[in-house]
Each structure stands twice: as C-alpha cells, then as structure tokens.
C-alpha cells in the first residue's frame, strides 16, 4: 500500500472472514518472546552480558602471570581452578542480566504497554509466567554463550598455568552449570522485584543492591548476625556451590552446604515471583 | 452488549465513578460524554478488567471481560494513553498482541492496511505522530475482529480524513450488529457519529438515551429573530414568560414560544423582522447545559468568555449601539 492511503483512507469494509483467535499459554509465551526480541535494548543488554563475562575472565586469566611472579599471591593462584576463572565474569554479567529482568516488567508500566498486555491476557498470571519462561531461557542461552566464549578466549592464557578446564571432569560442569543457574536466578529475582515495584529505577536499585552492593558492603562488618545475613545473600550463597577464589565474594558463603546454597539462590528467584504474581492479580493496571 | 450495575471506583479519597448503572446495546454507536475527570476512562478501564471496581459489576456480552475464553474476540479497546512500548515497531507491537491469541500474522497485515499504517509499520512507535499512534491503537483494537469496541477518544489527533474514516468504520461495525462505545470531547463529531448517548459528570450519569432525546430533554427548541427594534420586541415578549437571550446586538434567541406566535406579535406591534428562524439546539448546547454543574476543572478562560457573553446580552437588550 502506498502512502496515499495514509492521506486518504477509504472506508475499508471489514474482512468478513471470522478471525480465528484462540488464546493459549504457548501463544502468550510467543508473544513475550516477540516482545523481548523486538526491542533494541534487549540485544544491547544481552551483548553487554556476554562481553562483561568474557572480559572479566580474560582479565583474570591475563593476570595469572603476575600472580605467579609475586610470592604474596602465589598461594591464591594455587587455590584457583580453571572453571572458576572461566566463569568468573558472571558477577558482572549478572548485573546486566538483572537490569534486563527488571525492565521486562517495569518497561511495560513506564510505557503504558501493560494495559495492552493485560487486556490481551486478563487473567494476568500467565503473562508473568511467560515472561519468566522467556527470560530464563534467554539468560541461560546468554550465560552459556558467555562461558563458551570465555573458555575459548582464555584457553591460550590458562594453558600456560595448566588451568584449562577439563571438559571430562564433573567439577567443570558443576561450576559452569551452577553459573548458568545463578544467572537465571538473578534475572528472575529482578523480574520478581520489578513486578512488585513496577518502577524501573526502584526495581533496578533494589535488585543490584541485593545482588552486589549489600554483600560487598556488609562483608566488612564482622558482627556475627551480619555475617549470617551475608551468608544468605544470593552471591555469597552461590559460593557454596560454585567454590571460587579465596578473596571472591562467593567464598564468604562457604558456611552453607552446597545444596543449601542452591536452595537459597532458588528462593531468591521464586519468592519475589510468587509475591509479584499475587500483586499483579490484585492491583489495578 | 455492555452492562454495568452500580459500578463504583474510588482512588483513595477520590470517587472517580460513583455507582453508575447502564446498558450499551449492540447494533448502535453509543457516545460517552462528560467533562475532564468525569470518569469516562476509568469506566472503560473497569470494563476491560484493568481497574478493579471498588463495588458493583460490569459485564461484556454476559460475563466479566476476564472470564471470556477469547477476550480479544469479545472486546477490542483503544485506551486513552498510548498503551504501546515506543521502542517497538507497529508491526511488532501488533504481533505480540496477536501471538497471545494465536491470530495469524496475515491478520496483522490486514489491520495495518486497514488503518493506513502500511508505510510506517516497520518504524518504531516512539517516532509516531499522535494520529499515527491513534491508528495503531485502532488497529490493535480491531485485531481479533471483536464483537464489542471500546474507543477512548479515538479521533483525538486524527486528521479530517482520519476522523471521517473512524466515523464510517464505527458506523459499519454497528450496522453489522456490533457494540460500539466511544468517548469524545468533540460534540459536532459525536452528533454525527453516535446513535445513543451516555453523559456523565463527577462519576454519575447525567443523561442517557438516543441523541435527539437527550438534546430535547435539556433545551427546548429556540426561535432566532433578527430585527433593528430588538429591544422593543424583547420588552413585549418578556411579559409572556419567554426566555430571551441575545447572542449579538439586534438578534434574539427565544425559548418558550414558537415562530408563528413571534411573527404575529411582531406584526401586531408593527415591528419589522429581518429574520425569523426556528432552531433546534445543538448537541454542544445541550451538553453545556447538562454538564454545567458537573464541570470539575473549569478553565479561567471559559469563565471570562461567559462573563463577556452575559454583558453583551445585557447591553443588547437595550439596543443603543449608537449612543456611547
Ligand atoms: N489511577 C488513578 N489514581 C488516582 N486517581 C485517578 C486514577 N485514574 C483516574 N483518577 C481520577 O479519577 C477521575 C476520573 O478520571 P478519568 O480519567 O476517568 O476521567 P475522564 O472522564 O476520562 O477525563 P478526560 O476527559 O480528561 O479523559 C479524575 O479525577 C482522575 O484524577
Ligand atoms: Mg479520559
């Protein structure tokens, strides 16, 4: 159709063919996938996540030589494992992915899109479930990509120190799998917080504080109860199943058993989502 | 068919919609009128299940909107604020909506053509003009070919062709037996488009019914008279309990008397009439007098203008334009 149609639209007779419309959860998921992938900001965020993950692991791998040369850090080097170096960038990558997780919901509120969304799916909760599904898959893909890229990029540097992760070893897959799991949990946590708070600024602030700021700050406080609280923050809790270098934040959580760490991190993903679902059902759009 | 029963919405202290009951019948276009803040958009959001009524109920085609198996096939809505992410293209936006109901993408292209958006469908919505945004809103309302249409100020921002297109579209849809419920502040537009009216003010229903009935219920037909001796004629008529106003010197609008009687009276008094014309009230006039007590956000300018009209009326009652 030419632009003339814009200037002088003719009264188009309504196409009499009845439009087949049949809502399904699969359809809602496809709708959310279309939403996610049709925004440029999504691609920026996903690319940033991969770059941050790769960049950090490269930087760590690149500093191995100087660590080995300096006697004061030699011990640290000895404690370092290949998989931890390769997946080490997730602590920065999770920040980008958490921002995306929050925006997936808060972006709808700030633009008014939420009204179109909830008019199409007035039962509402399927929207959140579909968002969570799509976000989890996208995050898993990106985290896997980030690790794969880090693995390839750091291989020459790690080879010098005999630290190239051995793909035949279960421990390698535990760390890689745990990293992907943690990234997905971080994204879902931010989505849940975003659903509860509805404001981009508020949700991003809360999500990033809990994920990174609180453990970084509280780690300097040596009160017993504060240390306990820190153990139960997501990043330190991830240390229980990821291991990690001695001075990494993850190491603080060594107090928790690995399975407990997994459960704590999973709770961070699930509890805000459930609370968000309840709020979404109840509130005005 | 839309049925509301004692529908009420409070936002904190503010009662936006105050126990209104109405039925919007299929097969006709129902205009929804009311001053700013009267509660029109709120009512529409409640119909769509977006805002939860504080009390009361509203159903579409027999059940609450959210309980329909295929909601978009029941109601298509254009809500007041742009309910679109500006970063997405028009086509992507429509596809996200269509996907939820497994509507084929051929239908997306169809509504794009229909609303004249084909040339810009791939562009990001953030760069759209007001009218383009409205067209996109109408396109998404039409997506599932719904039985009921709810349009909140659909012609707002449309060019004259667009306005005409919407008018014909809603006419066609109503003639097909669908329910069309639309709000607007443009009275002349509403007079041409709507069959039925629902007028609200401060959250309550002020008037409802067929357009002409609503108009007649408020303002009796008037007679316009133009004569150089307007003052004398006014004095004569005043005695008979006729309501007189004077929109400009030498011109009188009379209510409570018909044209024939005015002519006879003037003839008997030897007053020459330059014009004698029966005039039925416009929707705008009817609307103004219906809502004058219900306007919440009155503009100062309006107050100034009405004051000026009043003084013009007073001076012209004694037509001494020459002496000054
Ligand atoms: N989400 C909200 N929170 C608080 N107050 C609200 C909200 N939505 C509407 N209101 C108030 O309810 C009243 C009715 O608003 P509404 O938007 O329904 O009016 P309207 O008839 O659509 O007006 P307009 O002609 O200006 O579009 C207004 O006083 C408005 O301030
Ligand atoms: Mg409104």
TrEMBL record, chain A:
- Superkingdom is Bacteria
Q: Which UniProt keywords apply?
A: Membrane, Transmembrane, Transmembrane helix
Keyword Membrane belongs to the record? yes
The transmembrane segments are: 43-64, 84-107, 128-153, 173-197, 204-226, 256-280
Q: What is this protein called?
A: ABC-2 type transport system permease protein
Which lineage do the record's taxonomy fields give for this organism?
Bacteria, Bacillati, Actinomycetota, Actinomycetes, Geodermatophilales
From TrEMBL, chain B:
TM segment ranges: none
Sorted keywords for this record are:
ATP-binding, Nucleotide-binding, Transport
Q: Which GO terms describe its molecular function?
A: ATP binding; ATP hydrolysis activity
Q: Does the record's keyword annotation contain Nucleotide-binding?
A: yes
Q: Which InterPro entries match?
A: AAA+_ATPase, ABC_transporter-like_ATP-bd, P-loop_NTPase
The ABC transporter domain is annotated at 2-227
The answer to whether UniProt assigns keyword Transport to this entry is yes
Q: Which PROSITE patterns match?
A: ABC_TRANSPORTER_2
Q: Which family does it belong to?
A: Belongs to the ABC transporter superfamily.
Name of the molecule in the record: ABC-2 type transport system ATP-binding protein
């Amino acid at each position: 159709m030419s632009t003339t149609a814009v200037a002088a639209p003719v009264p188009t007779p309504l196409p009499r063919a009845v439009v087949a419309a049949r809502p399904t959860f699969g359809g809602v998921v496809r709708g959310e996938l279309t939403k996610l992938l049709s925004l440029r900001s999504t691609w920026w965020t996903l690319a940033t996540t991969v770059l941050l993950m790769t960049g950090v692991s490269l930087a760590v791998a690149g500093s191995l030589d100087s660590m080995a040369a300096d006697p004061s850090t030699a011990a640290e080097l000895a404690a370092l494992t290949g998989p931890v170096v390769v997946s080490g960038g997730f602590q920065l990558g999770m920040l980008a992915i958490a921002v995306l997780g929050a925006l997936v919901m808060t972006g709808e509120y700030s633009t008014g899109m939420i009204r179109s969304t909830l008019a199409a799916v007035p039962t509402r909760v399927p929207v959140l479930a579909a968002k969570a599904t799509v976000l989890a898959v996208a995050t898993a893909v990106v985290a896997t990509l980030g690790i794969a890229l880090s693995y390839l990029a750091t291989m020459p540097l790690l080879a010098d120190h005999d630290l190239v992760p051995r793909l035949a070893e279960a421990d390698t897959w535990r760390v890689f799998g745990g990293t992907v799991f943690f990234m997905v949990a971080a994204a879902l946590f931010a989505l849940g917080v975003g659903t509860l708070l509805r404001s981009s600024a508020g949700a991003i602030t809360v999500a990033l504080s809990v994920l990174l700021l609180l453990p970084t700050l509280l780690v300097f406080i040596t009160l017993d109860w504060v240390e306990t609280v820190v153990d139960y923050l997501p990043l330190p809790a991830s240390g229980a199943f990821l291991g990690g270098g001695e001075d990494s934040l993850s190491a603080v959580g060594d107090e928790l058993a690995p399975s407990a760490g997994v459960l704590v991190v999973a709770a961070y993903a699930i509890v805000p989502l459930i609370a968000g679902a309840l709020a979404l059902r109840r509130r005005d759009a | 068919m839309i049925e509301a029963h004692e529908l009420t919405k409070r936002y904190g202290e503010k009662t936006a919609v105050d126990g209104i009951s109405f039925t919007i019948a299929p097969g006709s276009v129902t205009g929804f009128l009311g001053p700013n803040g009267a509660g029109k958009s709120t009512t529409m959001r409640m119909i769509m299940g977006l805002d939860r009524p504080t009390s009361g109920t509203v159903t579409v085609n027999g059940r609450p909107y959210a309980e329909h198996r295929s909601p978009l096939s029941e109601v298509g809505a254009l809500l007041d604020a742009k309910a679109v992410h500006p970063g997405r293209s028009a086509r992507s936006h429509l596809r996200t909506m269509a996907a939820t109901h497994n509507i084929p993408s051929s239908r997306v292209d169809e509504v794009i053509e229909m609303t004249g958006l084909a040339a810009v469908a791939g562009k990001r919505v953030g760069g759209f003009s007001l009218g383009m945004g409205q067209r996109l809103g109408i396109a998404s309302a039409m997506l599932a070919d719904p039985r009921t249409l709810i349009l909140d100020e659909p012609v707002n921002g449309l060019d004259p062709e667009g306005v005409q297109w919407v008018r014909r579209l809603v006419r066609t849809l109503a003639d097909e037996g669908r329910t069309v419920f639309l709000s607007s502040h443009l009275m002349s537009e509403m007079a041409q488009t709507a069959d039925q009216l629902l007028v609200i003010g401060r959250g309550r229903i002020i008037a409802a019914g067929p357009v002409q009935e609503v108009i007649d219920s408020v303002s009796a037909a008037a007679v316009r008279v133009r004569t150089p001796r307007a003052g004398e004629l006014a004095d004569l008529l005043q005695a008979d309990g006729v309501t007189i106003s004077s929109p400009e010197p030498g011109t009188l609008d009379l209510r409570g008397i018909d044209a024939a009687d005015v002519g006879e009276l003037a003839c008997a008094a030897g007053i020459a009439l330059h014009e004698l014309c029966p005039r039925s009230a416009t929707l705008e006039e009817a609307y103004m007098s219906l809502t004058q007590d219900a306007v919440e956000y009155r503009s100062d300018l309006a107050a100034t203008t009405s004051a000026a009209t009043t003084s013009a009326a007073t001076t012209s009652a004694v037509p001494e334009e020459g002496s000054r």
